[in-house]
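Today's session is about reading a structure prediction critically. Students often jump straight to the picture, but the first step is always the sequence itself: look for stretches that repeat, for charged clusters, for runs of hydrophobic residues. Only then move on to the predicted structure, which in these notes is written as discrete structure tokens rather than atom positions. Here is the chain we will use throughout the hour.
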Amino acid sequence: MNFRAFAARFALVVSCVLMTAVPAQAKSAYLQCAPYARQVSGVKIHGNAWTWWGQAAGRYERGNAPKVGAVMSFKKTAKNPFGHVAMVSQLISDREVLLTHANWSRRGGIERDVRAVDVSAAGDWSEVRVWFAPLGDLGTSTYPVNGFIYADGAPDAFEAPQFVKKADKIMVASLEIDLSDLKLETVAN
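Below is the predicted structure for this chain, in token form.
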């Protein structure tokens, strides 16, 4: 067997193994908001972002006041059919916070400490505008919000993770896979 045929077979075997061995959520090359919010906030809810508010009932304290470490739960809409979740990383004022979240401005991108502003008429955080990187400012759309889910039922006890500041607030997640345990099997022709 020549080297090219061997390399082609090896690549085919590796791709087949990866397609069956990698968990379903990791098969997407893009980081989603829900797994990222779960990781950085400590709120252990699974499923699409729009389901988090209902799932949190009885498990986590919920409310309409932003607190550091809380998860902001966005309602699902026609433009945002899976909803969205983001962790509050800093309080700026009674109507402005900084969010840390994934998959908002760029597919799979992580944004740290980006602005979200309460634009609701009642000042109750039921509608927000969020930083949108392609515009370099708040986006032009407004999004309805369910409220905030507080980590471990103790919103004041959570300490937000510390992040390295980058000039560009967008980072793209990558999937690193260790292939060292794969063994090559030769097939006789």
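Discussion point for the tutorial: The CA atoms of residues 77 and 83 lie 7 Å apart.
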